[in-house]
Amino acid sequence: MAIAKHSRSKRPLAFRQEEIFSFNPKIGVARRLQSRTMARGRRKVDNIADQLKFPHAASGLREDSNRPIGIRDNAQDIYHKAVNKGLLRGRTMEEVAAASVYLASRQARRPRHVDDVARASGVNRKRLNKVQKDIGKHLDIKAPAPFPSQLVPAIATKLKLSHRNNNMARLLLSRAKYENILNASKPAGVAAAAVWLTSADVKPRPTQGQVAKAAGVNKSTISVNAKELRKVQ
Q1: Contact 101/48 with Cβ under 8 angstroms?
Q2: Model pLDDT for residues 24-62, shown as the tens digit of each residue
Q3: Could you tell me where the beta strands, DSSP code E, fall in the chain?
Q4: Considering only the top CATH level, what class is 148-232?
Q5: What is the DSSP string of 143-191?
Q6: What are the residue ranges spanned by the domains of the chain?
């Protein structure tokens, strides 16, 4: 007499997430820790963005990659990708959050100087510079160099120059067609040179050293670029 074989119901290979957690509690703990890390990191990104006065989406401004409103969301996205890529290892949450904000502002061509981001986040400047380069390389982030005219307002504000001086510096840069005349120069150095040249009527006039400090460049950089800009002043 043939013995009847008991048929066993086949369980689907695809398990629900909560079932996996019940089979392996360590996975559940790791996921919860990652979720908390993400949430804390997002808050830190928001805090840095607040310090730098990037607006919230609720402000009603148009969502656009070339407007400051897009920087906050993009920074959150960069932070999320960095954590998923394991780039938090060996770096603090503050460093990754600050680097995310810095890279997002550069992508939107609304760059903030690394000193400003470091100050807003409490992260060491040199460390921030290294972390943002590492994250940018690992995530293949293309951050275009800013136009010198975009850096003028921040430099002028630090030096407490008038709106008129700000406009004069930007007009000089426009006239210079810097992309041809100063092709090999760094944008911050070009902007600093324009600010210094157009501040001749300010009493007392800021020194090259003061302008260099405000722009985060060397005095020699201002001298070199000023020589070129004088050709069209």
Answers
A1: yes
A2: 555 555 566 667 778 888 899 999 999 988 877 544 444
A3: none
A4: mainly alpha
A5: -PPPPHHHHHHHHHHHTT--HHHHHHHHHHHHHHTHHHHTTTS-HHHHH
A6: 17-138, 148-232
**What's the pLDDT tens digit per position in 140-167?**
998 777 888 888 988 998 999 999 999 9
Band (pLDDT 50/70/90 cuts) for residue 115 is confident
Residue of 76, 168, 180, 158 lying closest to 113 (CA atoms): 158
**What is d(CA 78, CA 141) in angstroms, rounded to the nearest whole number?**
9
Nearest Cα neighbor of 153 from 162, 145, 144 is 162
Distance (Å, whole) CA 119 – CA 41: 17
> Do 148-232 and 17-138 fall under one CATH topology?
yes
Return d(Cα 151, Cα 215) in angstroms, integer: 8
| CATH, range 17-138 | 1.10.472.10
Q: Does residue 147 contact residue 109 with C-beta atoms inside 8 Å? A: yes
pTM reported for the whole predicted model: 0.67
